[in-house]
Design a protein that fits this description.
The chain has helices spanning 14-23, 71-82, 108-118, 136-153, 168-171, 218-223, 239-245, and strands at 2-6, 28-34, 53-58, 61-67, 89-96, 122-128, 160-165, 176-178, 189-194, 200-205, 227-232, 273-277, 283-287. With 288 residues, the chain is an alpha/beta fold.
Length: 288
Amino acid sequence: MLILVTNDDGIYAPGLAALGRALLRLGDVYVVAPATEQSGVSHAITYLTPLIVKEVFHGEEHWGWAVQGSPADCVKIGATEFCPRMPDLVVSGINSGVNAGINVLYSGTVAAAIEGAFYGITSFAVSLEFDEHADYDRAAHLAGRIIEQVLTQEGPEPQLYNMNIPQAALRDVPQVSTVPMDVILHHDRFERRIDPWGREYFWLTGGPPASTTGQKTDLTELAAGNITLTPLGYNLTRAATVAQMEGWHFDLDGAGAPPAGPSAAAPPLMHTRRQTAGRGGEARTAGG
């Protein structure tokens, strides 16, 4: 079996190294990963600039290819340029920090797995709850065993899976819960600060609240210490709404061209105005 391994934490991330080693027992592993961390880039791709790729070695031994691009870029170029043929399996991870709930939509780790699914390849995203001294080798061993067992049980159609491993699962006999992703809204907040030059900047803080839906989801099962496995799809169409909208009527007769007037004039020149800190820390406005 030919396995393409990538991540969003970068080519030198310990989770990637552990995952690559663990998957060797399943087949030939090809590593194509971002040159630098790409957390939170979701499914961004590079097409306005060239992709720079460098071969990476551990000592004298080839390890993989570092791509100056996104996780999705890595799967695209890995599958079509660096693998000797189309991979049989794509695995993205091991991410430092879980990708559960609506974080699935922001995750570069998950996006890489989705890109693999675009090619009709069974793909996994694997994430581990953050810990400064995380045992990635133990997590990779668990992930490899789960992936192997999924492959022996799934049907003929390629599938897309999101796997999250809590720290508790590394210490005890773990349980695997197949659950849907939670879609509860995060408690987003921004911490406002002032830099040494008096300019405002913001740090995004907060996180998902405890789920209150009453059903088991990836968030509730992770909180219970269970490994979560969620089958995903990338078709975002709401089929029931499409069926309902088929009976709608839109009348654009006589719409013609937009009327001429002030709105058709050239837009005004744009400028910015920023807040700076004055003496004593009070805010004052500066033009720019």
